[in-house]
Known about the structure:
The protein is α/β, with parallel strands linked by helices. Helix 29 packs across helix 34 and helix 30 packs antiparallel against helix 32. The chain starts with a helix and ends with a strand. Mean pLDDT is about 80; it is low at about 165-170, about 670-675, about 770-775, about 1340-1355 and about 1460-1470.
Amino acid sequence: MNSLKPQNNFIKEVCSYFMEFLQSNFKRGRFPKRHIKLKTAKGFKIGLDASKYPEFNNLLKRTVLKKFKDSAEKIKIEKGKYTKKADKKTLDLITKSVNSIKDNDVDKLKKFALKSLKDNSKNFKKDSKSAHDNSFKEIEEQFKKIIINPIKDLCEPLILSQSVYDIDSLYTLEIGLSEALVGDLDENISEMMNDLLSNNSKEINTKIDNLLDIKEIKSKLLSFFDSLNINDLYFEILEIYNSKFNLDKQDFYFYFYEMEIQNKRFPIFYMPIDIVSDKGSNAFILKFEKEIYINKRAIQYAVGEYNRENSTVGQINSLRDRIIYVEEEDLIERLEKIISEICSYFKFEKNIDIKNTSIQILKNINCVISNNCSINVFEKSDESLINDYEDILNSLENENSETANMFKDILNDFLMNEPLSIIENLENEWDDGSVNERLNYTSPIPLNYEQQKIIKALSNKDCKYVVVEGPPGTGKSHTISAIAFNYILENKSILILSDTNYALDVVEDKINDTLNKARHTHDFQNPILRLGKKGNTYSKILSNQSISQIRDFHRSSKTHQSKLENHINSVEKTIDENITNEGGRFEKIDDEKMKKYLSLHLKFTSDKSILNLDEIDNNSNDSSIDILEFINLIQSEKENKLFSLYIKINKKNNLKSFEEFIKFINFVGQLDKDKNFDNKCLSLFKTIKKSGSHLIMKNYMNEFHQMKGFFGYTFKGDELVNLNNKIKNKLKLKNEIDLKLDSDFTDFYNASKEIEELEDDIEILKVDKETNGFQIGSNFSYEIFYEYLFNEKNLINLCKKETEKNNLKNILDFVKRIPITAKNVGIDLNNPESLFQNKIVKLSAVDKDDILDYLESRSDVAEAFQSVNDFDYSSAISEKQSLYTTIMTDKLDSKILNFFDKNRTTAKTLSKIIRSKTKFPTKEFAKLREAFPCIIASVRDFAEFINLKKDLFDLIIIDEASQVSIAQALPALIRAKKVLVLGDKKQFNNVKSMQAKKVENNYFLEKIKLAFKKISNDRQTLERLKLFDVTSSVLEFFSNIANYETMLKKHFRGYKEHISYSSKYFYNNEIQAIRVKSPDLKLNDIIKFDILDNKREETIGNSNKNEADFIIKQLERLKNKNHTGSIGVITPFADQQKLISSIISKHNDRDYFFEKFKLKIWTFDTCQGEERKTIFYSMVADKETDKLWTIFPSSLEKLDFDDGTNIHRAQRLNVGFSRVQECMHFILSQKPEKFNNEIGNAIRHYYQIFNTKEQLPSEKNLDPNSPKEKEVLKWIQNSDFYQKYRNDIVVEAQFPIGDYLKQLDPNYSHPKYKTDFLLSVKINDLSSNIIIEYDGFDYHFNKESLINEFNFEDHYTEEHMERQRALEAYGYKFIRLNRFNCSDDPITFLSKALFDACKNDDTNTIRQRIIKTAKSIASKDSRYCKTCEKVKELQDFRDETLKTKYGNVCNGCRKPKSHYWGHRRYRRRW
């Protein structure tokens, strides 16, 4: 027990410190913060004393007595309903002024009126209407000058001093007085003009005397002022209403019953209310919340002061609770008891009677107590958090208390334990992971790498605390939504907290926007529970209409469940395979191969190169194989005997003769097949050809055949010898032949016959082209051919070899296909001898290998480049996201339906609990958390509902954590297994913390330090203890114990020009703007300057009427142009904020501005968390008056955000200049160079951008170093796509895609050989941004300064493609053109790619089928079968035996009905 005492004492001191801060803010020492205040130091009206309006004051008291039942309909504040007259002193002065009107003044008015009537009757004889209007206007002006203005000038200051809203007094005194005095005159002008036309002058004088009688004028004036309402509750509420929206983190409160001590008034009870503008009836409606807070801190303070003054000790016992719920049965009795005890404690003789609504005021020397009421704007209440600390304090009495032990564990984490950092391990794991894992992630919305890492960190078992720094516009809300979706998909619970409703609204809207993409109706109420917000979502979700919608959609999802799962698997597999294949293509291009390729590329693309690559590519399927074959053929065939024959037998050496020769040798090769030549025949060819024996041997052969006997040629030897000699003599042959045997005669004869036929065939070749496909020309030398034929015994066999013949033919074919390359190597087709006398013949083995290496690697490059557009990653990952959105909605729907169907009683009970804002019972809350895995609430509100229990949520997220004090956040940590905080220490800290008085704060810090020293004196731990300072935000607190910490760098809100100042001066240029400025927008469209040169009017405080009027005119101009974007105004001074708000509140288009433009007017202090399309900056200062030095820092040079002191002025710059989405519009009253200090630097930074000249995307300014740029532009313009949508297309040349890729990786360097265009098009309200990229690296390879083997590896790698795919995930489409994929028909190729990029093919997806089915159920065209759990057409449920004719089970599942008569059973068959 003793060991626990120091620890418990320390916890008590911490809780007491935080409670005291939440109750007093330390702004005025320990003085209670909740007091009655009517105006802020800046002049904003924030309070209304209801006693000014007795009827309204009584109504409020009666509402309390009725326990606020049906009050919303009764507390309606209409214009003129609750008013106040001027006081007696003012009325006496007015009467005196009216009675001072002289007869002489009225006589002047009469004379002027008569003259005006006469002049206008004369001037407008034919236009009586104009005569009437002009006379009335002139007489009215004279009335104002002589009668009205003197009285108005005298009375207006007195009236305004009592009126809260000057629009009422101005309207009354100027327009109202005119109507009262001149109204009768208007009706009688026409009649008096008729008198003039009829020359009845006497009558007209009488009428003027009657109308302008001095007694009548005085009477009208006195009557008017007597009925004048100098104050109107409506206008007071309007001013408070406007003030609330100009102030940060303020709510409306109803204060009732007051206590005054030390000249300060405090409410005894206060209650959150909502004031709603009812535009239909021009009224305000007061709506009361369900809890009443007791101002314990103020009452206890008063008791303490009373005890000190009177040396007494005591307390008020009835203050044990801090909250009373309006639905409590004994509500009035409890209020009475508290009031009674207060009156008794302070020794009043009687009590305030709560049931008496008349004014009651009790006074004594100690204090004043009354039953007065008021309406106030005040800082949001922290009562539920204070209750948590009280619970912790109470739990310390029990050493086994779970709450106390949880709190101790948390303090140990922060003070005693060293946090385990997972940053290094996670980064290593990320780097070691595959591209597939990074690009094929699972989420219903796009994620960048930073967001993926955050989700990965949260899944780590060793990671409990995560800190995310989120500079302006970097997607904190998107990140929160992504984490929420991830937890929903994993069946985990998450609580999202923030101190700003706007931040929570943005998160809720983002979640709903994503879910609604899968829904079948636009008004779908998604089961995302919002607590604490006015009109929380619980009852809406569980309404019959919402449950019916959810059920319809859930049934539709179940019907398509298997198809949905299969489709997801298919999409994931497709993405995986394509990423793998894409990476594989670039793996072929390893660094070594690329270096070799690039070095050889310069050699083979130079003017001296023997290869013409374009020619080779266009005429070859595989250039490396073909060119190698070409080289080998020439080198191997340089000794070709057929070619030698060609050279011998051709008289002329040209292409035609060579082609004829090739055809001829093909013919000769066929001779053996036709003639059956053998070696004997070939050996006789020369002898036979020489003797011409083939022409005369026929007769001799007859003689030879006749000598054949019974035994053949046996015994015919002599006769054969004689015949032999006879033939030799005849043919003049001696030793060439010797025909001794019968076989010799036969061979010789056959040879002669073949030669005769050969000559016949050759004769045909000379003349018959059709038979042979060619015709031997005169160039052919037959004699030489025969000589070769008879001399070369193997010639015919050589001609028969296909390889020999084909080689010559292939060489010729190659030369014809690549004439430029052939010419480069020295081949001239008109000189066939050059085929084997050229550079290739002399090519070395090394040169040959270089050509082979170059063409092979070039082939790999071509393969990779040809398929760069094959995979549409953007569409694929979007489809996957939409499918997971459907799965997520199904999970949410299933949970809420299960809760609704199985826990009807609990559901109704919880609804009452939420309405009454009481805590959920622990058991019922477990069911609620299961039904609503994602809950959104204010950090100040959530504890009203959720008990202080350990690990209630798997994750708690605190958004805008820099604005949440550790005192506000600590109770939430007990309820979480893991905590993630998002914020930015370079934006504003908690306002309450900043305003805390140092002396008071140090007093408490010293107390907790002394208490902790009894636990530990360790210096390092004592240093950590400083983080318990309430001026520390929870973001700073967690930064010291986070397991994982990161910074979001992708800026999505505005353009890079907008965020450039913050990025440069606050974030070391690390902010990476992702949004692309549309090409039709110029720099002076997104940053504008108007410098007013007219002299500044005299205005109150730090305001500038000229700038305010200019902004109003701009709003009017935008309205006339039907502008639809949101608009904001930011100014340094509250005076200017108030002036602009006041002018707008009186403007006829006020409602239009607020509704259509979502107009808000902020100071630099109150705009954090906001964003608008257009923001006007009214800087107020001019050459006469410049007080900006009181708002902004003199310099940023010595600023230390880690130190945290004196940073607020700098934070104003960062916050104020980072709110814009589309256009920053500066309204200045002096030139930018005249502004001093850091605000001057900021203004000049943007002014320099404003004055930057942009190049237009025209041909004349295209990059001369990129010859393809002009050509690609023509391709775009000539495409069918461009022709079809040319009016909806904007094309930007030299689009800096490299800048955007660099945003994803600061070390990235974009290739200079890339030509990039941005094509923006809008088709059917769908906008597309398409980046058209032409890769002209082959041209730039000749420019070694641009690209070489040492820097290529930075560009064409798997990482390079991953960067581009990541950018595609942000919605940009890529079309990559290069010489390999569009060389045949680039225009057609590009046009098809553009059509494909803009295709919105979402009609056949599973998600669309689910939506279609859900719509069918909702329209009663289909019905859900509970048996087979399928949605089927209504006809499938038809049952004629039912009254409705349709059952709940489909015909396929319905069982046959059984009927019983007596003891026998009959079955009706269907």
